[in-house]
Amino acid sequence: MIGYLDFEALERYTNMSQRWWRYRLDKVPHIRLPGKILFKASDIDEYFRQFQKTPKEIDISGLLDRVVPSRRNRGPRQGAS
């Protein structure tokens, strides 16, 4: 289980640079100790959840009807014998 992370561990945990995190420090929950800033892994996970996007259901048949014209609606093929 991951508990508290310093900037270096946070960078590895999230694959986001220390500079990226320092820029957003006022928006991210953290613990400020003398000479050290720590982040709770669960707080970071929660912070990321606000940016999570859920894909919408896709109507495949409707999409295909819009993208691929029906052969019934086409005229005779050019160059066909």
Number of helices: 4
Total count of strands: 3
Query: N- to C-terminal separation?
Result: 70 Å
Helix/strand/pairing category: alpha+beta
Shape: rod-shaped
* Strand residue percentage: 5-15%
Mean pLDDT across all amino acids: 85
Oligomer: single chain
Integer count of domains: 1
Lateral arrangement of strands in the main beta sheet: 1-3-2
Q: Spans of 5+ residues with little confidence (pLDDT < 50)?
A: none
- Classify the helix fraction into a percent range: 25-40%
The main pleated sheet reads as: 3 strands, antiparallel
Query: Over the alpha carbons, how many angstroms does the gyration radius reach?
Result: 25 Å
Order of helices and strands: EHHEEHH
